[in-house]
Amino acid sequence: MTAALSLISFSMRDVDQAPESPGLYAWYVSFRAGPHDWKIKPGPNGDQAIEGFLNLLRKYAGYYEPLPIGLAGRGAYGAKWQGSLELDHPLREPQEGGRVNEDEAAKRLDILMDSLDTEDRRRIMATILHRSAPVFSAPLYIGVAENLRQRLSQHRRDYTKSYDWLRDHPEDAEEVKARGKSFGARAAARNIAMEHLEVWVIDLADEENDEVTKKHLRNTAESAEWLLHRLYSPILGRQ
Predict the structure, then answer these.
(1) Is the distance from CB of 201 to CB of 11 less than 8 angstroms?
(2) What crossing angle do the helices spanning 103-115 and 49-63 adopt, rounded to 10°?
């Protein structure tokens, strides 16, 4: 056995440089913001960059928003009950007619807005969020592959195909988000830019030997994948 497994990362655009070997991988989305996002933008109601940066945060948080949960039940005399529950996401754009007694949520939003109140504070927030992936952030998807390059390239093709389709058929986005058959399709449906997607891989090539055959390696990797799914619940995984 080797002392340490090889851990490397690639942007989605560069997955053709991934090793042609077995391994596990996890996709992440990085937060991207630049000076044009945090610099002061004077307007009639003050610094317009504050609301603009908040919208960036809302969009990023939306990438991790879980799908509604379907509920069904039976009552007396065979009555059927059904519906769905949606996460009350703290950064979701407020809806007209929504709940008004949200003191705690309003308080937290005020604190967040204060942290975006100046150019330097916005820059620091952008830096923290950008550096959080993958150390602090949850993975979007976890998978296992016999050939990492082939598998990751397939993800890129799925993304490109779905992104192109949804550009011409935006009305299909919710359906693909909920029932897309591949990670690439589901990522495209959430409107995640390709350049914001990065994958970290654990290369298992050096682990194969006389005692650990390719079959044993595959079984161990699949068991690890199963466990990681249940530990981290990747939002774009097959659930």
Answers:
(1) no
(2) 120
